[in-house]
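Incident log entry.

Two folding requests arrived from the same account within the same minute. Monitoring flagged them as a possible duplicate submission, but the sequences differ. Recording both here for audit purposes.

Request one:
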Amino acid sequence: MLESTMMDVPLTIPTILDRMKLLFSGSKVISYLPVGIDPETKQPIPGRFEETYGQLSDRAHQLMHALTDAGVKSGTRVATFATNHYRHLELYYAIPSVGAVAHMVNIRLPDEQIVYIINHAGDEVLFVDNVFLPRLPAILAQCPTLKHVIVMGAVPQLPSGMTDFETFIAGKPTQFTYPEIDERQAAGMCYTSGTTGHPKGVVYSHRAYVLHSLVSASSEMMAVTERDTVLPIVPMFHVSAWGYPFTCPFVGANLVLTSVLTAPAFIARVLQDEGVTHTAGVPTIWFGLLEELDRAKAAGSPYKLQKLRSLLVGGSAAPRSLIEGYGERHGLRVAHAWGMTETTPLGTLNNLKPEHDALEPAARYDVMALTGRPAMLVQLKLVDEHDGLLPHDGRTPGRLLVRGPWVTGSYYDNPEATAASQQNGWFDTGDIATINTDGYMMIQDRAKDLIKSGGEWISSVDLENTLMGHPKLKEAAVIAIAHPKWDERPLGVLVVRDGFEVTKPELDTFLLERGFAKWQLPDAYEFVAEIPKTTVGKFLKRALRDQFKDYKLETSVTLE
């Protein structure tokens, strides 16, 4: 073998931090945090806090000194229990830069799962937002590995044994000499949402974060530069906020962080006032924002969002009606993406090919509704139940497998889950998908959510996305119900918009007009006030299946 003459320079988080300080010290992190409660509306009062990347770098170096003085060393797991704000961002850089591992704990998980993942990860230090202090006593009592608790934000009385964040870093030097870091060593940890069984841990390397950031910023993906201002509404406690905390400082883009403040009217004002050019969140966020934009436009006072060139939607499938609604009524582009905790998370992103520009609007929205093409360095394939390769013809569904330099090769300390998910160097996503000849992937369903009726598969996702385009419906979920003749049949669980009523014949006609066959239609619809959701805004199908497990469908339904 002839070796190359190239330098072997490690790809590590300090690389991003040093570049941020050297080239983009004037770029900003703008944080909106609750500073009180309005006595009339009972809603949080937002305060605006501004920090330059230069200041962020200095404070991150102070944090490094404070962490090492507290005994944090290479491999130490340091947990964060926090929302999106500048202190949390400082931790994103300080923890891995001392060789430790940043474990972002999902604040929306129930206490028993939080206790499990803190103990499973072996966390020794916990940084917590002041608003979550009431939850800590029950958690700390069951987490013996935690040695230090640092509170972010002012509190009237600091609990005994805890340290204030600003006191923790006060007086520390703003320069820190990094230890030697191997690019393949752990930099961060996240756990899956744990909808079935215990959450599973994924450990991200420095190398994975850096490569993910490089590709994310590229023109083929998010195309963010120093000219951009980015608002990731996706939380920093979930899959590293889809990588934005690393991608944006890497290229000098301004970051806007809004903590727990995600009300549609507030987000619309922030998008307008901060001149946001790119934003990202789950479909539930964008449904609420679309309603607010529609309301403001109808009232004659539309928001000024001319700078906003892209809304990235991920976490679950975005209905075509949502993408079309933004495009037709507000001239805004929604970009569909797909990823998982296990993929850091960027797997695919839907950017149109040049030839799509000539399509009629309806056909163009059909393409935009696809989940996207694989990111650079990411590979996808479809296999059948016997692991045989399936064609990329846009019609043949199969199990979706993925591999790449930021796709997990195992779960942390979980050999059973690892064995179930790894297929000869590929990760089995648990999704059923199609891929067309242009490489656009479309998630058809989670394997466990597909409905098998009379030997044929019905996609709950297709039904849901189409139903949510009905003007009288706010939300729609579809689950399988046991049927004595057809094995399983679909049941629609719907939330109707205020002031409207809708009937089954009306909904059936709506689906038939949009290409569904009669045998694919739900046998019945149930109307509820709210559909339960996971901690990241996806429909919680397991809860719906439990709720309707004894539901009886008519046995006389004819599907032929």
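Request two (distinct sequence, not a duplicate):
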Amino acid sequence: MPEKHLALMVQKQAKKYGERTALRYRENGQWQDISWKEVGERVHAVAKALMEMGTKTGDMVGVFSQNCPEWTIADLGILSVRGVSVPIYATNTAKQAEYIVDEAEIAILFVGSKDQYQKATFIIGASKYLKKIIVFDSNVPLAGSDQAMYFKDFLELGRKSTREQELEERLKKADMNDLATLIYTSGTTGEPKGVMLNHSNFYFSFQAHNKRLAVSDQDISMCFLPLSHVFERTWTYFALGSGMVVTYCDDTGKIVTYLQEIKPTIMCAVPRFYEKIYAAVFEKLEKAPPSKKNLFNWAVELGEQIYTREKEKKSIPWDLKLKHKIAVKLVLAKLRGVVGGRIRFFPCAGAPLSKNIEEFFHSVGIQIKYGYGLTETTATVTCHEEYFYKPGTVGKAIYGVDVKIAPNGEILVRGETVMKGYYKKPEATAEVFEDHWFKTGDVGILEDGYLTITDRIKDLMKTSGGKYIAPQLIETTIGKDHFVEQISIIGDQRKYVAALIVPAFDALEDYAKSKNISWTSREDLIQHPEIVQFYHERIEQNQKELAGFEKVKKFKLMAKQFTQEDGEMTPTMKLKRKVINEKYQSVIDSMYGE
């Protein structure tokens, strides 16, 4: 049974597991372990140091850092003084971080590296609330600032503190209805909103996950997505509560290397991760001789037969088992090896995932637990079950959560994992609740309990001909191509659907060389008639299953990626359509002859 307060959970686990490894991280190119006993001691030290600095019950404390063990230790320390932990994306600008610091009235801010520290020094000069910066990385020069100190010194302050009794008294009053965290939604439109989640939200989430997923203290979880996001944060709490080893990825660019070194059994990821692996596999396959292609296709086809039978709990004939064993040895084991070879399942959510890509991974023997959730629902609303799951859907509602579809197609959610509201925003809170149902803003279909997401209500487009189109569906359909890095669909109040496409330049440049196409720059390459025709043919092939009015009629290849730095993406890598449409208006207009 999960603990009803996260501070009590970490105390219990530290006593239970003692010298066993809790956290694993890289330092100077080597993997290092931190035991449960050490985690317990450091969390305790953080809590007492916060009390030394005057943190009271209900005070908000910020964490502005990339993933690292200190992130989790600081977070759990904040919760241990019955404070409220407020994460800020490590990639946020100083202005974005300042908005959160001021609204949440944050006096103490934990920061990761030099980048966040520099932004924090800007904030401390402008904010009337921020008083102290605690820096995780001891290599960051603090330039004699009396407003900043290293995390290691902060821990020493806590260890020397005599507030043991005071801390115990505070923890005795720990209640599941304590506010645990404010998680600010990155928001594709408007200013960010602080989602208020209590300890009870996490408690009921863990109960539901225990019923849906088979996990144990033998599992190793790779912490890959940002801890500032509800998905990775909730999963990490769940992993620690289950006694797993949590391993931190300090460089997302090296994730495949890390997977092969650590060989985790579980890792949360968003669809883009699988799309990139799928693209890399098929890019390699395109260059392979016919004999290798045939062997690959034979092995994956056998894998598909096995997974289809397994998910429907059907018996597997002995000859099929034997052929599959050979397929695993010759092909499938190598594909599984790309992600370490020991993955039991991948929790996946955050964006649309192509059914083809999902089925490919299942056929290889890598199970994707595809699901759906929001910050406001403490992550998971639905996900695949162990058996009888349906690729192409996001599964069935987890225990204790009700889902229904409103007359306008909007997905409504009710349950103990739903937030209490948005911080200091009563009007925004009232707007998203109707008769105790939370209005998700997503559009979906519910059939036999299986939920399928079709789009965001705000993203739905209506052509000038009156046809409704779901851009995410088209983007997923065309974007699964390994020659496509990013795609943004245009079509609202327009005659037809068009697209801005950023090519996957590594694959495209290899293709251009193979066709003896010369170019001087990326701008030059994407304007080459053969390249434009090549993309035209691929788009036509990929969208052949779409309805006529959904098909992309015109497209423009873009030389530069959409980025968060340029304001075109959120920290969770969602397109900011309004920004893109405004920024590239002349390019878009040219596709409509305007």
